[in-house]
Structures are given as C-alpha cells and as structure tokens.
Design a protein that fits this description.
This protein is of the alpha/beta class. The chain is built from 17 helices and 12 strands.
C-alpha cells in the first residue's frame, strides 16, 4: 500500500478539496525555490511554524529551505532590545548596539549564500539587515541566458520579503527609523493583521500565523497519556487548573497572571501552572523566570515548568479548566490558538492579534487588566456548561481560520504574487538598458521598440 504524504493527512481536518488545491498551486511552482531566515530553531511560535509548514511547502512542490542566523549573547541582547522597542517599550539602541548588530549581520552574510533562491523571506528584526549585503542577482527568467548574466548592469536580485510577527502599532521611532533603512530594500512586507500595516510605501500582505494539528503539541492525546505527563511533572490532576503557556518574557506578564490567580483563589480552591520555555534568542528569560519563581515559591499550588516538552504542553492544555494569556503586547498569540483548538475556554488580554482569534463571550473571553482577568477566570470556573460551549466554538474557529494548511496556501500565493510582479517590473524598467547593451555586443541592426523575447514575456 502506498504511504500517504503528510499533506494528505490534513484532509481529516480541512477536507480533501483544500489539500488538492494546495497540490495544484504547488505544481505551478515546480523548480522554483524559496528560503526563510530566522534566528532560532526552537522556542517561540516562529520556529514552531517553520518546522511545520516548510516540509509541507516542499511536498506541495515549492522547494523551500530554512536558514539560521548565528549570533552571540551580546547580539541577542541587542535584538531583544530591538524587539521590545518595536513593540512600544521605552528603550533605544545605542551606537554600540548598532555596531554589534551590523557586525554580526555582516559576518552571517559572508557565509550564508542566498543569491540563487527565487525569493528570500526574512523573519522578524534579527536578520533584517542582511538584505544590504546581497548583490542584485538575476531572477529565474535570466538563468538560462549566460550572455546576459555576464553583464553586471543587467543583474537583478530576487525579491526579498520581510515577515514581521510583532505588534507594530506603536514602535519606538528611533528604532523604526533605523530599521527602515533596511526595509526600503525589501520588495514587500508581511504582517499578521491589517492593524500592523506600516507607513512604508511597499506592498503589504496580511498573513495570520497558524498551528499544526498533527504536531506533538497539538495531536490528540488519550486520557492515559495526559495523566502520565501530569504525574511525571508533579501536577495535581484533581484540583481545578488555571494555565498559562508562554515564554518567560516581560510581555507575557507572568507576575500579572500570579496576581490574578491569587484573587481567584480567595473564592475558589484552584491551582496555577505557568509553563514557559526558553528561546535561544531571548537572553531575558532567566531574569523573568527568577522573578516569577520568587513569587511562586510562596504558594504550593503554583507550579513553574521550564521543561522543553511539546507533549507536556499538549497534556496541560487538555487538562486545564481555564487557559490564560495575559499578554501586554502580542503579535498574534499562538498559545491562544493551541488552547482554542483543544476546546478550552480562554481568558486573554484585549491586545495585538488576540482579538483576531477571540470573539468575546462567543469563543473566549477578552480581559483588560488583572482584576478583569481574575473575574472572568472565576466566572468560567463557576459556569462549566458555558465554558464548554465556548470551547466548542473555539475549536471550530481554529479549524476554519488558523490551521497550517491555510498558512501553506498563503505562502504559495505570496510567492506567486511577489515573484511574478517582481520579474515583470524588472523587465519593464530594464528594457531600454538591455537594448543598449545588446547593441554594444556586436553590429546588430537598430531595434525600434523591443526585443522579441521580451515582448512575448510582457504579453
């Protein structure tokens, strides 16, 4: 029996028609190539999404690779400062920060060969400056034409796309001004929602993140598997559980979650679990964890977990009575999506991309501040039937809008739109220069309008 490709397995969730549509789109892009560049292979939603959808893009037909930006602790301290300031924190880059950033970008550019992909996608601020270090190379149309490739004046780089997963509603002006000097060299900007559209006069595309229902973090677990994971990690399987799964990061406000839990516990005997991994490109995590730990050790019903285990995250989300995401800023919030997919009622801050997922009191509850968060957690713990109905609606919302198959389709559409538009634009802008250079190569008769092969391309 022929083994199904992984992409075919998603028909269970989205239907056979959706999967076949992806195959048809991918077939049109055979022999084309794309690369994603980001700063970490693990920790955080970007790495998780790349892990899931890059193999699916390859199965669909578009050759896609994933490259990693390398840096030391000093570099990632700078990029975390950049990350925070782009999300509105009052911190600014110093001249020393800029020197560190540019030196690391230059070093990476010296060995990361990106020239011959048909499109380059740069994920988030960390590798953004790499665009300044790459020559303008030929799009795929020119590859079979060695004569033209030898002419430096005719070379064009492939389109570069900046994919930003942050909340860009109120970026620090100086940091944004610095980043813009690189962004001006990109052909397009991709953000998670229309509210993050920038002032740059570039094509903007809106692409919400998504989860993989077949990943270890989101696949179905039996009740026995859930119980085993909880037991291994010392989690009470009986007491009502409030859960937040997030990196230990100031934007995720773990201390705020602890304060909300304490208000709830005054009227309901419950426990709090904070599950937070440490991303390789986030040097702030240790300090935030220590602050949370100093509060948690005062209460035996608070558990802090830093185990790198997708299965444990899955088990906790399936066991939780209420899942919280009390972020202060949030580009999208995939942990919200994960909990919704598992049919859990979510209480989440009314910030960033979270309202794109939660329709208040329909498939989750939006909150404003610690007191409101505590009130809504208590309400869900007391009203089990309504919490269950909210959870069912949440699952269907994710099935409709936030599964990885939709993201694969979006990536294929993005590639097709940008590469097609870029080649046409490049040809039109360079046509006269091309004619001039061809005439210099030999005694060719003057041409009045256009070279025949260019005319056919335009048509």
């Amino acid at each position: 029996m022929m083994q199904l490709k992984k992409l075919d397995k998603y028909a269970e969730f989205v239907g056979e028609d959706c999967v076949q549509q992806i195959y048809k789109m991918g077939a049109k892009l055979a022999e084309k190539s794309m690369v994603h560049v980001n700063s970490t292979y693990y920790g955080g939603g970007v790495a998780e999404m790349l892990t899931s959808y890059i193999p699916l893009l390859n199965e669909a037909g578009l050759k896609t690779e994933w490259r990693l930006l390398r840096g030391d602790r000093d570099f990632f301290m700078v990029t975390k400062k950049m990350h925070n300031s782009l999300q509105g924190m009052k911190v600014e880059l110093t001249s020393e920060d800029i020197t560190t950033y540019e030196a690391t970008i230059s070093q990476n550019s010296s060995f990361m060969n990106l020239e011959w992909y048909d499109m380059v996608v740069i994920d988030d601020p960390q590798p953004c400056g790499m665009v300044a270090h790459y020559r303008r190379e030929s799009p795929s149309l020119y590859k079979p034409l060695p004569l033209l490739l030898s002419l430096a004046e005719l070379q064009k780089k492939q389109p570069w796309v900046w994919r930003c997963h942050l909340d860009l509603t109120s970026p620090n002006r100086k940091t944004w001004r610095y980043l813009k000097k690189y962004l001006n060299d990109y052909e397009a900007i991709v953000v998670s929602a229309r509210k993050y559209k920038t002032s740059l006069r570039k094509p903007h595309y809106f692409m919400a993140p998504a989860i993989d229902p077949l990943s270890e973090k989101n696949r179905r677990l039996s009740s026995w598997e859930v119980a085993r994971e909880l037991s291994r990690n010392g989690i009470d399987s009986q007491k009502p559980m409030i859960l937040q799964v997030s990196r230990f990061d100031p934007w995720k406000d773990p201390l705020g979650v602890i304060h909300a839990y304490r208000k709830v516990k005054k009227e309901i005997d419950c426990q709090l679990v904070l599950m937070g991994g440490m991303a390789a490109d986030d040097p702030e995590g240790d300090a935030i964890f220590r602050n949370a730990y100093s509060e948690a050790e005062k209460d035996k019903d608070i558990s802090l977990l830093t185990v790198q285990s997708d299965r444990l995250v899955n088990a906790l989300q399936r066991r939780a009575d209420v899942v919280v995401q009390k972020s202060l800023r949030e580009g999208f919030g995939l942990t919200v999506t994960e909990a919704m997919w598992k049919g859990k009622p979510v209480v989440a801050s009314r910030v960033g991309g979270i309202p794109l997922q939660i329709e208040n009191r329909v498939n989750g509850l939006l909150c404003d501040g610690i007191d409101d968060c505590a009130t809504k957690i208590s309400y869900l713990l007391k009203h089990k039937r309504e919490a269950e109905a909210i959870g069912k609606n949440a699952t269907e919302k994710v099935r409709k809008d936030f599964l990885v198959t939709r993201l694969v389709r979006d990536e294929l559409e993005l590639f097709q739109a940008i590469t097609r538009g870029f080649i046409t634009k490049s040809l039109k802008s360079s046509e006269q220069m091309l004619l001039s250079m061809l005439l210099k190569l030999g005694d060719l008769p003057p041409l009045k309008k256009t070279v025949p092969f260019l005319k056919r391309v335009h048509e």
